[in-house]
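Fold these two proteins, one after the other.
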Amino acid sequence: MSTPIRAHVRREGLRLLSRSQIRRRHLSYGALGVQKPGFSFHFPSTPTTPSSKRLSSPSWNTLSRALSTSVTSKSINEGYAGNGVVGIVRESYNKWERRVPLTPDQVRALIAQSPASSPIKVLVQPANHRIFTDAEYVAAGATLQEDLSEACLILGVKQVKEENLLPDKSYMFFSHVIKGQPENMPLLQKLLDSNIRFFDYECITQGGESDGRRLVAFGEFAGIAGMIDTFQAIGQQLLQSGYSTPFLNSPSSYMYRDLVAAKFGVSSMGRDISNGGLPSSLEPLVFAFTGGGNVARGAREIFELLPHKYVKVSELEELKKVPGPHTCVYGVLVEQEDMVKLKASASSDEKIEKAHYRKNPSEYEPIFHTKVGPYVNVLVNGMYWDQRYPRLLTKDQIKGLYAAGNDGLLALADISCDIGGSVEFLEKSTSVEKPYFNYDPRTDEVTDKIRSEGIAVMGVDILPSELPREASKHFGDALLPLLPEILGANGSAEGGGVGVELTNSCITAHGELMDNFRYIEQLKSSAFKEQSLRSLRSVPEAEERGLVVELDGHLFDSGLINSVLDLMEASACEVEIINMSVRGTEGRSHAVLRVTGDKKEEVVNKVRDLVPLLPTAEATCSIHGGSRQAVVTDMSQKRVLVLGAGRVANSFAEYIGRRDDRKVVVAGNVDSEVRSVAAEAKHGEGVCFDVTSDKARLEGLVKESDVVVSLLPAPFHGMVGDLCINNGVNMVTASYVSPAVRELEQRCLDAGLSILNEVGLDPGMDHMSAMKIMDDVKERGGMIKHFSSVCGGLPAPEAATNPLMYKFSWSPMGVMTASQNSAVHLREGEVVKVEGSELLNSAEDLHAFPTMNLECLPNRDSLIYRDLYDIQEADTVFRGTIRFKGFSQLMYGIKKLGLLEDAPCDSDNWAGVVQGMLAKGGAASVEEFVAKHCPKSDAQSIADCLNWLGMNGADLKVAHPGSAIKSFCALLESRLLFEGDERDMVLMHHDIRAEFPDGTIEKHRSNLQVYGEVAKMSAMCKTVGYTAAIGAEMILRGDIVDKGILTPMDKSIYGKGLELLEEEGLVFDETCEVIKGARAA
């Protein structure tokens, strides 16, 4: 590494200005006196004036963002007026690049949607190698011509050649400049020199957030193509070892006409494996998949076309002992805890906390090579990786596996294609026509030809181009909605410009790098980039030489970072900044400082003691390295009070309690349940008392809290809300807004507090997912004409083994009470009312999930959602509850019998209770009772159910003689339990139809299907608890700024909420069908 550059930094520049002050003064690196970011501060024992400091190399894309806060003088919209003309450039990156940014059908749709007064014009450069012909574009309404100078916006897929760039235009393509890739820096310079406003697809994210979900991408198709290509590599590798298999007949993806043909080919290969089996002496073929994003999902989609079985990592060793012939292949999903473990942990099975791992990667060591590697034949790598993290598999590790006789790895499909990255022996990228090379771990030799000694390695960097037709359609569907705002922009600074998603993806404009991308300037030197990478890699070694201090919080605005640096300067220590990042959306920052010198122990102790003295920083501090154990000091721990320790409280506590700066206090009246829930949090505490009656003790806990979460029955929320307002504490519930809570509205507003309700599954996730669709429709000028939303918690089909086809994953009393609520909804303009006594008699078939036999019941008052959702134009508004077909009529008979009434029982045993109820109904038998009172019900089913529950015997006593429904619920809870190997299921379905002024009708369907984890967390617990926890977390972080009685129907809440749910794997499958009008599918 080159000698660090010493730079004199003006004291007022870096040290004594907050981020907001720096921003106001428009200071850049030069104004701060720093020649380049990232060279280390050195504090001499005798201070000089100005202080001489040396700033060491940080992460290039974090420190530079933190320090470079220049504000561009012009808006990105100013001077780039839209004229309604878009150009599609001829691709020149690679002969295999046949993809297009817009298909002919999408061009047709774009033109058709434009108003007659300002029609959109599409120019297409002629090209013979595109997947779509020039003639198809002309037929779609495009103009075929070489000259694109008329266009205000020019679209491509991959990098446009520098000599073909037209000045003063707006461009969109994948540039690959955001990591400072040296080979693309000339392209970046040309964009700047040509005054081009450039948007990079890679940076277009949901809400414009730097860590938001990418909106325009090809990832899924990379996984699909990569998996198909890998089959041929497996076939060739096995042939080298003397095995002929169906894999050898699998062509590369690009050889198929389209994806349908490709899938048919893979399925045909799968039938050969299933019917004929693989060679009898061949061990079970195990495919290991890493990553959880679109890339990995695409790969698994193709893998699952083969006869397959998924196994757990713990089953791999025994699986390898199973003799052939095998008629299927095996898959294993590699989780975080299968890749790394805490260095301090003796166990390789300990669950990894994702947030902690991302923040403290140096505290972890790799274990994939010992835990999974010995048993894998095909490694399909789709994971994200950068230099901070341990590699998945190094050269030394694979060499060690081979030396130990574990040489079963046939092929590596590195779809992420990080050269020398998470899998170190991916030494180069490969091409479509030559997709593989051979790597021999014994000799570290790379050859172009697959050989028996070694591993077939696939690393094609343009995999989606092998499926250009489907990939282009998928890509264009995502891109199309973003184009009108550019094409119609008026070019003024004040308005008429692009939205936040495009604004934050704009890399250059007016000959300058935009604020979010100024750090690239520092990366133009490849030497600087390599220095930065080495600095990141050196963190573990640094811990041996000194102490590493991590700070996270409001470091700049509070002045904490200034005070820390002052303290270190006075101690005559040398400090190296390993990382400095500012998360602008949260106002929080993260700093990693390495401290060396004789007084390093003393100075870090002083830092640790200093941080609590600045509570406005809301900071956390971790100290690592040397002979010290990791120390975490909680400076401003937020206190979360959870009331109730029922079925969904565990997931709430687990989510909200993941962070060190969260103290979770659980209060309930069953000690074992309280302790169990509290144990889910890193810093949990259980308090056992009667929460609903000991108001004084409850108020004492409320006073000490930052947010109170009531998971109590709904009737108690009003009382809890009253205490929260009296003590100035925000509150969250998963329940509907009750009248008692609604009465608190004005007091809540006066106190400046938020009481967030309806953040569970239903209500909660239903609101958020439906409003996302409907708000999008309204923003595009449409109106909602049909709204139907149904949801239910059920046993998974294989667990629906009792007469009711139901088991409890939440309160039995809640289920029974809900089944007697009156309901009203709107159907094709007609109001339909259902009395509570007849609700169970009103079920209708549901076909939203074709593989299951389901029904749905109306759920409460659907009419109020015309106003709540602002869909007054809708002629159908329905909300319902899902059950397996037959449940409702069976329960209707049970209700008519009297088992759901809160009335005293006539006997102390169930046989006597049932006979008494039959007698009251004037019947001697169940059959006679049903014939008289509920003829639609099946008498035999009711009789069988009562017998199965044991209600025909005098020896079964009732639990609550004073209440039939309480006794019946207790009986159901004892019989309708999930066994240890069973799981539950949550289903949700939206059917939303919209009309647009031009006559277009869109039919949106949104499905959620979540299965519980056997012996771990139920689907109901996860969906309700995580959603409520996310609501509480958003309040604690300041994401929710509105005050009063709130629900998650506003975009300011549901936008971030859905994003956080998606991070937990709770994702809606959304489709849109155009059943009339001219909009591309």
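Now the second one:
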Amino acid sequence: SPGAQIMLEASTESSYVAAVDDPNDDDFIPQPGGSCLACCRRRRVFTERLVYPRVEKGRKAIALEETGVPSRLPAVPNVVKNTRYNLLTFLPLVIYDQFKFFFNFFFLVMALSQAIPILMVGPTFTYVAPLVFVLSCTFVKEASDDIKRWKRDKEANNELFQRITPSGLAQVRAADIEVGDLIQLEGNQRVPADMVFLSSADGTGQTYLRTDQLDGETDWKLRKAVYATQTRYSEATSLCTDKIAIRIEAPKKDIYHFLGRMSFDGRHEREPLSLEQTLWANTVVTNGPVVGMVVYTGIETRAAMNTTQGDTKVGILDLEVNLHSKLCCGVLVLLAGVLIICKGLSGNWSDWYIYFSRYVIMLSYIIPISMRVSLDMAKILYSMTIQADNQIPGTLVRNSTIPEELGRVDYLLSDKTGTLTQNDMIFKKIRVPPGEYTDEQVPLIRSHVRSATEKPEKLWGENLERRTSKRNPDEALGQAMLALATCHNVTPIRDKDGGWDLQAASPDEVALVRTAAQAGLKLWHRDDNSVTLLDLHHVQHRYEILACFPFTSDSKRMGIVVKEESTGQIIFFLKGADSVMMERIAKKGGSWLAEDVENYARAGLRTLVIAMKRLSQAEYEEWDAKYKAASTAIKDRDAKTRKVVELLETRLDLLALTGVEDKLQENVQETLEALRHAGVRVWMLTGDKVETAICIAISTSLKARHQLLFVMEGTEISSSDEAMQKLSEFASGRFQETVLVIDGKVLTMLLQPENIRLFTETAAKAPAVVCCRCSPTQKADIVRAVQQFTGMRTCAIGDGGNDVSMIQAANVGVGIVGKEGKQASLAADFSVLKFSALMRLLLWHGRNSYQRSARLSAFVIHRGLIISIIQVIFSAMFYFVAVPIFQGFLMVGYSTYYTTAPVFALCLDVELPEKTVFFYPELYQSLRKGRLMSIKTFFGWVLLSLYQGSIVMLGSMALFEGKLINIVAITFTSLILAELLNVATQVHTWHPLMVAAEILTVLIYVYSMFILRSYFDVLFVFSYEFVWRVAVIVFLSWAPVHVCKWCRTCLRPPQHRKLLEEDPQEDSALYSHQL
């Protein structure tokens, strides 16, 4: 029976777990629980899981519940899914997104009301057709975008990989990979799921990963295979055994930590697993073949858990237009109420209710649905203009709904590596006791190193005991280059053609080792046991590695103990940040260090202090005994090991100070400077360490010369309370002139729910903020916090897969196509090739897009208000009749072919020339205040509509008292001409298409008079009496308003006018440009 089968499976699983790995072992530290979706569709929480090679098809991994009871782990599909809709959800979701806007919902109600005969006030198509057109355009656009996303997902899911089976290799699609599969990866191949690294074909048990799509850093990360599987299983197929089991923690977001262990032969042998044995999904293996076992798939991978699904973005202008439409609705109800009150409330209540409804429908053009169509067409035009801009080639607009947002940005949140910098390290300077040498003096350095290698005693003889201040250039540079060539984790690569290259986790190390090679000490071989150098005389020097202490974010230094093979000399080299090296260097000989470090940092160089210490054989053996004892300790192993290593780090001889430049992207400094003057605050969110981030902040001018630094590091802060106390110290100081720098550990504390609000509000006051060691999720959390707690608009820019969440969370997401691929570019709203394109996007295109859309929406609302005012006066004068004054084609034509072209032509208007906009970036600050779409501005347009509508209607009645039979032709002609003049007086820079739009509209109107004979008496319209009286009406409705506006401009000129008056050449340039 099914029940008996379930019991049998549970019993079998329990036996297997007990045989391979005991769930109740005390030495395995459980991590915070994760979650999965069980077969019964309920959410289960567990802490650990057991994975074994999937030798048999259908065999599943085992979940270990908190109670210790094992159960079968439900499979998680390893699929990539970025689509927003499916066949069932497409229509409901798109319709919901459209009708949540007041415009569309209002006209849906109006269209449905025309199905009730008593409420019909005109042709039904005048209400239904615009709504259907708007929805049809939206359906086509959303379907097209989602089909493109589906095609990209399909390509990723169908990528083929090699799965190891007992009978050999078999191809498997990425979407079909399951937990427990053994996957063989070739060089430069993407990792399809989270895996544990088991072996490499080259026998070294090592490989490098490119993690740019995960953490944003292009540094190559060293990964080491599990020692037992690398040495014990020579053939890949031999790994297909049930004697191996991997016990791991629950899925979590942390990409920098991993906890697990591998058991062999029924728990008789175990090997701990850490981050070094992992191959995370979406990283790339640089050399292969390598074999890994899949432990997490699909949404449980680190990459997926650090990616958030982007919501549909709505621009602030759309929200403001939506607010204005609600205000228009209020005006509509008010006018309908006034008509009802004036008509009288006597009689049956249903009569005045019907009349009120008819008045509302009749005046519904106050809220014109053409607004959505006009704005959508304008957005498409802006997008085309951006993509056609020759000064920012390669720019693509992937989200055409928010170009106006570029003109309203308050905060820019930027990635560092690949965005602000090229991640291309260049050696610039080295300071040794005898003096300083630059990259232009490499030949001179080379000659000194040649001389030093000719006499090895300069490197290893008695001179080593002399104080550094007495060393000659040969000796000083020789020892400095020797330290650079040996103290590192760089691996040389030589191909069959004699080519030589370097592979490492840190580009800084690559730059320095390459400099040592250029100086005459080339790294020829490097493994865990030795380093071999090749000098200028083609002589190899081999150094045995006795101990190596890798760099960590806590220690901020790296050390190595080497033994020269021929002389037996033992040397301890140490390099690290100046903040930790100062106290470890002998005072004599290092007096110049502090001043030069400050000078290098001020120049934006990444500094590294290098020192050394010679050890006798007896000193080394004594130290080595202590080190071995500490490294095998069960309790507090790391602390004890660190304490022993620090015994070597005393009274070191200072060798050199190096300065490396991280090459910046083109025009980064100019762009950040312009944005600072524009009032945009810049936050740099990076996965790099604090020292590197500070150097880049200085070199990019993110930190101005007069500004201070306030650093919050995890080494000084151990609790959330301490972090908040430190933050309050920042707030109580000169925070407006201080750049705030926060490392990852402290940032985690500050982003806790109880602290995040105060942190965001405080940090938002700083001129710039630098957040280091940020995970992809933290970047997105920071963006959301800035938006939520400051109410400001954000723009996020990045170039890696780790930036996708941040880009999608921001109001405006910009992706750079660069070395890290196109993942950020594809997920962004705007795709650019360079960071410097941001200045033109914001200051020029953002300004124009926002101003044009604001004027366009204001004119469309004005167009609806003025005709509604005319309708109200008409109804009031003719016994409050609920009959439209303009019906049929006149009503449809008024909002389309009679006025659309001139009003839409405002999308070509340019208020100021480019030269002025970029010369005065401060002009951008006025846009961010949103005055063009404020409520005050809205009611200004209401008053203008009230005045002009009253003049047109009352003027027509006064001047054509005996010709009221032609009241439609009189008022409509005056209305059209007044609107054309209104548009003309709003233009700052005339475009040929604007002139054509005005002329074409007049011609269309004149031509329609001959066609629509039921509305126009041609003989009367073309009479002299009609022409001059209409001219008087138009003049009275238009001239006084614009005379008042001109006077106000003279008395209170706008900001840009003040700037132009200070520069007459700019003023004349603007005038000629307008002509």
